[in-house]
Amino acid sequence: MCISAVLNWKNWYDIDFLTLGLALALIAFGVAVLAGATWNEEVGSLWETRWFLQAQWAVLGLGGAAAVLVVDYRLLIRYAWFFYALGLIGLLLCFVPGLGHFTHGAYSWVKIGPLPQIQTSEFAKLTTILLLAKILAARKEQWHGLADVLRPLVIGAVPALLVLKQPDLGTAVVFGPITLLMMFIAGLPYPYLILILSPALGLLGISHDLVYILVWIGLMAGLLILAVVKKVPWTVWLPFLLVTVSAYAVVYQHGEKIWNDIDDYKKRRITGFLYPDLDLKHSNWNIYQSKIALGSGGFWGKGFGNSIQSQYGFLPEFQHDFVFPVVGEQKGFLGASLLLALFFLLLMRGLDTAVTAKTLQGALIASGVVALYFSHITINVGMVTGLMPVTGLPLTFISYGGSFMLASLIGIGLLMNVRLRSAAGLMDETFRAGRPQMELPKPIPDDF
Predict the structure, then answer these.
(1) Least confident of 1-10, 208-217, 290-299, 340-349
(2) N or C: less crowded end of the chain, CB within 10 Å?
(3) Range of the domain at 139
């Protein structure tokens, strides 16, 4: 099958301008919020302002999205292992003396000569999506044994562990939803998904209370019954249940020692989440000020340039992880709701792209990008509102950051790429992705 690598000009009307328009609206929204939050900052020139730098990265990101758009995504899938290797190399460079750059408590950036520093983990997410799409499409919804389940899990776990080593917990967590959603779209039965998540039940071992023990026993019995009723092969359910039992035993016996070995800042984040009204001047300062900013905006907001919490230094990292409270303070409930509505429309458009894709590869790429955006949006908004522990994760298209903006727009390019190649006349295959079972193409394209 011949793959057209370059976009034909006669197909310009098939470009997904809705996805592009939603992305541009979010970028404009973010630039305006950053400009208002930093309006009174003393800088040397316009070129040094955060909002102008953000706009420059957005322009560069649009160029990256265009570059991804003109190359057929099936050609990208064909070289997915190469891109994945580049992503891992980028993560390893963070640990090389002289190249790795320590910022915000982590070796997450690479600085080469006069070039801007790059957060390589942002691009590793995209390369992982491409390889997962390649591997999962090759399975053709066949989940026979443990190896079929472990293979994509390992692909997602390797970059996640390297990011965790930096350490960057927030970014490492994102690889989980990406991997699991793509596996589910590829036909992973839901009992398998529950079994994959079952080791988290080991955390119940932190309490020796009889109620917790009985709850854990009941959940384990439920898992076993589910596996038997749904005819999950014992070679799949037994290893996961053994890991779950082992995790529970370790936490039950050594939970206190594990807690004592955790870094102090991680402890403060956990205790701050569990007890939000304690230690407001230290461990819970960020969340406390975040809630003040969100509430002080009222319904209409204080207006452009009137972000007291950010301009007077009460709200740390307002341009990065805590930018959503600035939205609430400047734009009020109305502006924050508008932002969430734009996010919702973008995610729904991405899901529609996955559903209407004409190859399983395209559906997987689109679902992976949607999972990436959804994870960042959900965790960030949940974090700044106190619904989730503080993990340090930026808000898509809104938070200040060059690497993050560039990678996010490349993701937009991938979504547009899949939708463009799903337009009439660009592909001969007929394929429609849908849950709970997908109608597979006959024959399935083997260009990967």
Answers:
(1) 1-10
(2) N
(3) 12-184+330-421
Task: Supply 108's token pair.
Answer: 């997450």
Q: Is residue 290 part of a domain?
A: no
* Residue among 129, 58, 109, 121 at smallest CA distance from 405: 58
Long-range pairs of 148-154 with CB within 8 A, sequence gap ≥ 24: 149/183, 149/188, 149/192, 149/196, 149/236, 152/179, 152/182, 152/183, 153/179, 153/183, 153/196
Asked whether residue 134 is assigned to any structural domain, the reply reads: yes
Cis peptide before 191 (omega within 30 of 0): no
Q: Are strands 118-119 and 100-103 parallel, antiparallel or unpaired?
A: unpaired
Q: How far apart are CA 408 and CA 431, in angstroms?
A: 27
The answer to whether the CB of 103 falls within 8 A of the CB of 120 is no
pTM: 0.88
153 domain residue, yes or no: yes
- Is position 438 within any domain? no
- The pLDDT of 76-93, averaged and rounded, is 94
- Residue tagged 């580049």 (tokens): 86
Task: Write down how long the chain is.
Answer: 448
